[in-house]
Amino acid sequence: MAKSNHYDIAVIPGDGTGPEVIEEGKKVLEAAGKKHDIGFEFTDFDFGGDRYLKTGETLPDSAISKLKKFKAIYLGAIGHPDVPPGVLEVGILLKLRFSLDQYINLRPVKLYPGVDCPLKDKKPEDIDFVVVRENTGDLYSGHGGVTRKGTPYEVATQVMVYDRQMVDRCLKYAFDFARIRKEEGKPGKLTLVHKTNVLTFVGDLWYRAFMEMAKSYSDIQTDYNHIDAACMWTVKNPEWYDVMVISNMFGDIITDLGAMIQGGMGIAAGGNINPYGTSMFEPIGGSAPKYTGKNIINPLAAIEAGRMMLKHLGEKEAAKSIEDAVAYTCTKIKSLSAGKMGYSTTEVGDMVAEHIDGN
Ligand code: IPM
Ligand code: MN
User: What is the share, in percent, of the chain residues with pLDDT greater than 90?
Assistant: First the structure.
Protein backbone atom coordinates (compact mmCIF):
# COMPACT_ATOMS: atom_id res chain seq x y z
CA MET A 1 0.00 0.00 0.00
CA ALA A 2 1.32 3.43 -0.86
CA LYS A 3 2.20 5.54 2.14
CA SER A 4 0.26 8.75 2.49
CA ASN A 5 3.40 10.87 2.66
CA HIS A 6 6.54 10.00 0.79
CA TYR A 7 9.98 11.62 0.89
CA ASP A 8 13.04 11.23 -1.30
CA ILE A 9 16.04 11.76 0.92
CA ALA A 10 19.63 12.11 -0.26
CA VAL A 11 22.05 10.37 2.07
CA ILE A 12 25.73 11.19 2.42
CA PRO A 13 27.07 8.70 4.99
CA GLY A 14 30.55 10.23 4.58
CA ASP A 15 33.63 9.36 6.60
CA GLY A 16 34.62 7.47 9.73
CA THR A 17 31.69 6.60 11.93
CA GLY A 18 29.29 8.48 9.60
CA PRO A 19 28.01 5.35 7.82
CA GLU A 20 27.45 3.47 11.11
CA VAL A 21 25.37 6.21 12.70
CA ILE A 22 23.42 6.95 9.51
CA GLU A 23 22.45 3.26 9.33
CA GLU A 24 20.86 3.53 12.80
CA GLY A 25 19.27 6.84 11.88
CA LYS A 26 17.62 5.26 8.84
CA LYS A 27 16.45 2.34 10.97
CA VAL A 28 14.73 4.80 13.32
CA LEU A 29 13.24 6.86 10.48
CA GLU A 30 11.80 3.66 8.99
CA ALA A 31 10.30 2.74 12.36
CA ALA A 32 8.71 6.17 12.70
CA GLY A 33 7.56 5.96 9.08
CA LYS A 34 5.91 2.60 9.68
CA LYS A 35 4.04 3.95 12.64
CA HIS A 36 2.94 7.22 11.06
CA ASP A 37 2.39 6.01 7.52
CA ILE A 38 5.36 7.82 5.97
CA GLY A 39 7.48 6.32 3.20
CA PHE A 40 11.13 7.09 2.54
CA GLU A 41 13.34 6.52 -0.43
CA PHE A 42 17.00 6.96 0.42
CA THR A 43 19.53 7.68 -2.33
CA ASP A 44 23.16 7.30 -1.30
CA PHE A 45 25.98 9.59 -2.41
CA ASP A 46 29.58 8.58 -1.72
CA PHE A 47 31.16 12.01 -1.12
CA GLY A 48 33.87 11.96 1.53
CA GLY A 49 37.52 11.23 2.23
CA ASP A 50 37.72 7.81 0.57
CA ARG A 51 36.33 9.09 -2.69
CA TYR A 52 38.65 12.09 -2.55
CA LEU A 53 41.69 9.86 -1.99
CA LYS A 54 40.68 7.69 -4.94
CA THR A 55 39.60 10.36 -7.42
CA GLY A 56 40.90 13.71 -6.15
CA GLU A 57 37.34 15.00 -6.26
CA THR A 58 35.56 16.52 -3.27
CA LEU A 59 32.11 17.60 -4.43
CA PRO A 60 31.63 18.12 -8.17
CA ASP A 61 29.27 20.86 -9.31
CA SER A 62 27.09 18.24 -10.96
CA ALA A 63 26.39 16.84 -7.48
CA ILE A 64 24.92 20.15 -6.37
CA SER A 65 22.32 20.15 -9.12
CA LYS A 66 21.44 16.52 -8.31
CA LEU A 67 21.15 17.23 -4.59
CA LYS A 68 18.96 20.28 -5.23
CA LYS A 69 16.21 17.94 -6.40
CA PHE A 70 15.89 16.47 -2.90
CA LYS A 71 13.94 18.15 -0.16
CA ALA A 72 16.47 17.00 2.43
CA ILE A 73 19.95 15.55 2.81
CA TYR A 74 20.91 13.26 5.65
CA LEU A 75 24.64 13.57 6.35
CA GLY A 76 26.82 11.34 8.55
CA ALA A 77 30.25 12.95 8.95
CA ILE A 78 32.96 14.60 6.88
CA GLY A 79 36.65 14.39 7.86
CA HIS A 80 39.38 11.84 7.13
CA PRO A 81 42.70 11.31 8.98
CA ASP A 82 44.64 10.88 5.70
CA VAL A 83 43.38 14.11 4.16
CA PRO A 84 44.87 17.47 5.27
CA PRO A 85 42.51 19.56 7.42
CA GLY A 86 40.29 21.91 5.46
CA VAL A 87 40.17 20.03 2.17
CA LEU A 88 37.02 18.03 2.90
CA GLU A 89 35.49 20.50 5.33
CA VAL A 90 35.66 23.34 2.81
CA GLY A 91 35.33 21.20 -0.32
CA ILE A 92 32.32 19.22 0.84
CA LEU A 93 30.60 20.43 4.01
CA LEU A 94 30.92 24.18 3.49
CA LYS A 95 30.40 23.86 -0.27
CA LEU A 96 27.11 22.08 0.40
CA ARG A 97 25.99 24.71 2.93
CA PHE A 98 26.92 27.61 0.65
CA SER A 99 25.80 26.33 -2.71
CA LEU A 100 22.47 25.13 -1.36
CA ASP A 101 22.18 28.47 0.45
CA GLN A 102 21.46 26.76 3.77
CA TYR A 103 21.63 30.04 5.61
CA ILE A 104 20.45 28.77 8.96
CA ASN A 105 22.27 26.29 11.16
CA LEU A 106 19.73 25.23 13.73
CA ARG A 107 21.22 23.61 16.81
CA PRO A 108 18.96 22.59 19.68
CA VAL A 109 20.57 22.36 23.10
CA LYS A 110 18.32 20.18 25.19
CA LEU A 111 19.24 18.08 28.20
CA TYR A 112 17.22 14.89 28.22
CA PRO A 113 16.29 13.34 31.59
CA GLY A 114 18.83 10.79 32.77
CA VAL A 115 21.71 12.38 30.86
CA ASP A 116 24.82 13.35 32.79
CA CYS A 117 25.29 17.12 32.66
CA PRO A 118 28.71 18.60 33.42
CA LEU A 119 27.02 21.64 35.00
CA LYS A 120 26.44 21.13 38.70
CA ASP A 121 22.79 21.36 39.76
CA LYS A 122 21.41 21.97 36.25
CA LYS A 123 18.35 19.91 35.34
CA PRO A 124 16.53 19.19 32.05
CA GLU A 125 14.17 22.10 32.76
CA ASP A 126 17.20 24.45 32.88
CA ILE A 127 18.75 23.42 29.56
CA ASP A 128 16.34 23.73 26.68
CA PHE A 129 17.22 26.32 24.08
CA VAL A 130 17.90 26.49 20.37
CA VAL A 131 20.77 28.27 18.68
CA VAL A 132 19.97 29.85 15.32
CA ARG A 133 23.44 30.17 13.85
CA GLU A 134 23.84 32.13 10.61
CA ASN A 135 25.47 29.66 8.24
CA THR A 136 26.78 31.39 5.12
CA GLY A 137 28.62 34.61 5.99
CA ASP A 138 31.04 36.05 8.51
CA LEU A 139 34.63 34.75 8.70
CA TYR A 140 33.43 31.81 6.60
CA SER A 141 32.83 33.97 3.54
CA GLY A 142 36.29 33.45 2.09
CA HIS A 143 37.09 37.17 1.92
CA GLY A 144 40.69 37.84 2.74
CA GLY A 145 44.06 36.78 1.60
CA VAL A 146 47.73 36.75 2.16
CA THR A 147 50.63 38.85 0.89
CA ARG A 148 54.38 38.62 1.46
CA LYS A 149 53.85 34.96 2.30
CA GLY A 150 56.73 33.24 4.03
CA THR A 151 58.49 36.51 4.86
CA PRO A 152 58.69 38.06 8.32
CA TYR A 153 56.28 40.70 7.01
CA GLU A 154 53.58 38.27 5.94
CA VAL A 155 50.11 39.79 6.09
CA ALA A 156 47.03 37.60 6.38
CA THR A 157 43.41 38.70 6.61
CA GLN A 158 40.11 36.85 6.96
CA VAL A 159 37.22 39.22 6.91
CA MET A 160 33.97 39.21 8.86
CA VAL A 161 31.42 39.80 6.11
CA TYR A 162 27.69 40.42 6.30
CA ASP A 163 25.25 42.35 4.21
CA ARG A 164 21.91 43.59 5.44
CA GLN A 165 19.77 41.00 3.67
CA MET A 166 21.83 38.10 5.07
CA VAL A 167 21.36 39.49 8.55
CA ASP A 168 17.67 40.20 8.01
CA ARG A 169 16.78 36.77 6.65
CA CYS A 170 18.53 35.08 9.55
CA LEU A 171 16.85 37.35 12.11
CA LYS A 172 13.46 36.77 10.51
CA TYR A 173 13.93 33.00 10.76
CA ALA A 174 14.94 33.39 14.42
CA PHE A 175 12.00 35.63 15.35
CA ASP A 176 9.55 33.30 13.59
CA PHE A 177 11.17 30.34 15.29
CA ALA A 178 10.85 31.98 18.72
CA ARG A 179 7.19 32.59 17.96
CA ILE A 180 6.61 28.94 17.05
CA ARG A 181 8.34 27.87 20.27
CA LYS A 182 6.11 30.23 22.20
CA GLU A 183 3.06 28.55 20.67
CA GLU A 184 4.55 25.25 21.88
CA GLY A 185 4.64 26.60 25.43
CA LYS A 186 8.23 27.83 25.58
CA PRO A 187 9.09 31.36 26.82
CA GLY A 188 9.25 33.04 23.41
CA LYS A 189 12.44 34.94 24.08
CA LEU A 190 15.10 35.76 21.49
CA THR A 191 18.64 36.73 22.48
CA LEU A 192 20.99 38.26 19.94
CA VAL A 193 24.63 37.43 20.60
CA HIS A 194 27.48 39.43 19.07
CA LYS A 195 30.32 41.67 20.16
CA THR A 196 29.06 45.19 19.53
CA ASN A 197 31.56 46.70 21.96
CA VAL A 198 34.45 45.79 19.66
CA LEU A 199 32.97 44.86 16.28
CA THR A 200 31.49 48.28 15.82
CA PHE A 201 30.65 47.78 12.13
CA VAL A 202 29.35 44.22 11.78
CA GLY A 203 28.06 44.03 15.34
CA ASP A 204 26.25 47.31 14.89
CA LEU A 205 24.64 46.05 11.66
CA TRP A 206 23.27 43.00 13.51
CA TYR A 207 22.15 45.05 16.50
CA ARG A 208 20.30 47.70 14.49
CA ALA A 209 18.65 45.12 12.26
CA PHE A 210 17.62 43.14 15.36
CA MET A 211 16.12 46.14 17.15
CA GLU A 212 14.25 47.20 14.02
CA MET A 213 12.78 43.77 13.42
CA ALA A 214 11.84 43.40 17.08
CA LYS A 215 9.22 46.12 16.52
CA SER A 216 7.19 43.76 14.37
CA TYR A 217 7.44 40.95 16.94
CA SER A 218 6.04 42.61 20.05
CA ASP A 219 5.00 39.16 21.35
CA ILE A 220 8.66 38.09 21.50
CA GLN A 221 10.82 39.16 24.40
CA THR A 222 14.24 40.30 23.21
CA ASP A 223 17.65 40.49 24.80
CA TYR A 224 21.24 41.10 23.74
CA ASN A 225 24.48 39.53 25.07
CA HIS A 226 28.09 39.96 24.04
CA ILE A 227 29.59 36.62 22.98
CA ASP A 228 32.04 36.43 25.87
CA ALA A 229 29.25 37.02 28.38
CA ALA A 230 27.04 34.54 26.53
CA CYS A 231 29.70 31.85 27.09
CA MET A 232 29.61 32.68 30.76
CA TRP A 233 25.81 32.61 31.02
CA THR A 234 25.54 29.42 28.99
CA VAL A 235 27.49 27.72 31.76
CA LYS A 236 26.11 29.64 34.73
CA ASN A 237 22.49 30.31 33.75
CA PRO A 238 21.54 28.32 30.64
CA GLU A 239 17.89 28.64 31.72
CA TRP A 240 18.02 32.27 30.57
CA TYR A 241 18.10 31.17 26.94
CA ASP A 242 15.17 30.14 24.80
CA VAL A 243 16.28 31.01 21.27
CA MET A 244 19.71 32.50 20.59
CA VAL A 245 20.48 34.13 17.24
CA ILE A 246 24.15 34.43 16.43
CA SER A 247 26.54 34.99 13.54
CA ASN A 248 28.45 32.13 11.97
CA MET A 249 31.79 31.98 13.81
CA PHE A 250 30.52 32.83 17.27
CA GLY A 251 27.74 30.33 16.64
CA ASP A 252 30.21 27.63 15.66
CA ILE A 253 32.00 28.09 18.96
CA ILE A 254 29.06 28.41 21.31
CA THR A 255 27.29 25.38 19.84
CA ASP A 256 30.21 23.14 20.84
CA LEU A 257 29.79 24.53 24.35
CA GLY A 258 26.06 23.86 23.98
CA ALA A 259 26.72 20.29 22.87
CA MET A 260 28.74 19.66 26.03
CA ILE A 261 26.06 20.89 28.42
CA GLN A 262 23.44 18.70 26.78
CA GLY A 263 25.57 15.60 27.29
CA GLY A 264 28.19 15.75 24.57
CA MET A 265 28.72 14.98 20.90
CA GLY A 266 26.88 11.69 21.33
CA ILE A 267 23.55 13.51 21.25
CA ALA A 268 24.11 16.90 19.57
CA ALA A 269 22.50 17.38 16.16
CA GLY A 270 21.97 20.23 13.76
CA GLY A 271 20.05 21.24 10.69
CA ASN A 272 21.49 23.32 7.84
CA ILE A 273 18.34 24.96 6.63
CA ASN A 274 17.27 26.66 3.47
CA PRO A 275 13.60 27.34 4.22
CA TYR A 276 12.88 27.52 0.48
CA GLY A 277 15.19 24.78 -0.79
CA THR A 278 17.18 21.72 0.18
CA SER A 279 18.11 21.41 3.84
CA MET A 280 20.68 19.10 5.36
CA PHE A 281 20.68 17.38 8.74
CA GLU A 282 23.75 16.07 10.52
CA PRO A 283 25.15 15.00 13.87
CA ILE A 284 27.49 17.78 15.04
CA GLY A 285 30.34 15.49 16.13
CA GLY A 286 32.98 14.62 13.58
CA SER A 287 33.96 11.37 11.90
CA ALA A 288 35.62 9.98 15.07
CA PRO A 289 38.31 7.88 13.31
CA LYS A 290 39.38 6.16 16.50
CA TYR A 291 35.93 4.67 17.03
CA THR A 292 35.31 3.76 13.40
CA GLY A 293 34.10 0.25 12.58
CA LYS A 294 33.91 -0.84 16.22
CA ASN A 295 30.14 -0.61 16.67
CA ILE A 296 30.66 1.57 19.76
CA ILE A 297 29.84 5.08 18.54
CA ASN A 298 26.66 6.66 19.89
CA PRO A 299 24.09 6.93 17.09
CA LEU A 300 21.74 9.20 19.06
CA ALA A 301 23.08 12.41 17.51
CA ALA A 302 22.39 11.06 14.01
CA ILE A 303 18.98 9.85 15.20
CA GLU A 304 18.28 13.33 16.55
CA ALA A 305 19.33 14.78 13.19
CA GLY A 306 16.76 12.46 11.61
CA ARG A 307 14.14 13.71 14.06
CA MET A 308 14.93 17.32 13.10
CA MET A 309 14.62 16.37 9.44
CA LEU A 310 11.15 14.91 10.00
CA LYS A 311 10.05 17.97 11.92
CA HIS A 312 11.38 20.17 9.13
CA LEU A 313 9.42 18.11 6.59
CA GLY A 314 6.29 18.86 8.60
CA GLU A 315 5.98 15.39 10.18
CA LYS A 316 5.53 16.64 13.71
CA GLU A 317 3.97 13.52 15.21
CA ALA A 318 6.62 11.22 13.78
CA ALA A 319 9.29 13.58 15.08
CA LYS A 320 7.66 13.48 18.51
CA SER A 321 7.71 9.67 18.47
CA ILE A 322 11.45 9.77 17.86
CA GLU A 323 11.93 12.37 20.58
CA ASP A 324 10.07 10.20 23.12
CA ALA A 325 12.09 7.15 22.12
CA VAL A 326 15.38 9.05 22.39
CA ALA A 327 14.35 10.37 25.81
CA TYR A 328 13.53 6.80 26.89
CA THR A 329 16.85 5.49 25.54
CA CYS A 330 18.76 8.19 27.41
CA THR A 331 17.42 6.79 30.67
CA LYS A 332 18.58 3.27 29.73
CA ILE A 333 22.12 3.72 28.44
CA LYS A 334 24.94 4.15 30.95
CA SER A 335 26.66 7.06 29.24
CA LEU A 336 26.34 8.99 26.01
CA SER A 337 30.05 8.54 25.26
CA ALA A 338 31.36 6.16 22.61
CA GLY A 339 32.32 2.81 24.12
CA LYS A 340 30.72 3.59 27.47
CA MET A 341 27.06 3.23 26.62
CA GLY A 342 26.73 -0.31 27.93
CA TYR A 343 25.26 -1.10 24.49
CA SER A 344 26.61 -1.22 20.97
CA THR A 345 25.77 1.28 18.23
CA THR A 346 23.28 -1.11 16.64
CA GLU A 347 21.72 -2.01 19.99
CA VAL A 348 21.07 1.65 20.75
CA GLY A 349 19.48 2.07 17.31
CA ASP A 350 17.35 -1.01 17.96
CA MET A 351 16.27 0.31 21.35
CA VAL A 352 15.03 3.58 19.84
CA ALA A 353 13.29 1.81 16.93
CA GLU A 354 11.64 -0.76 19.20
CA HIS A 355 10.38 1.92 21.55
CA ILE A 356 8.72 3.63 18.58
CA ASP A 357 7.19 0.29 17.50
CA GLY A 358 5.85 -0.49 20.94
CA ASN A 359 4.26 2.88 21.69
C1 IPM B 1 30.52 22.59 12.44
C2 IPM B 1 31.97 22.34 12.05
C3 IPM B 1 32.22 23.02 10.72
C4 IPM B 1 32.02 24.51 10.91
C5 IPM B 1 33.61 22.72 10.12
C6 IPM B 1 33.89 21.24 10.05
C7 IPM B 1 33.78 23.36 8.78
O8 IPM B 1 32.82 22.77 13.05
O9 IPM B 1 29.64 22.10 11.72
O10 IPM B 1 30.29 23.22 13.46
O11 IPM B 1 32.96 25.23 11.27
O12 IPM B 1 30.90 24.97 10.70
MN1 MN C 1 31.81 23.48 14.82
Answer: 98
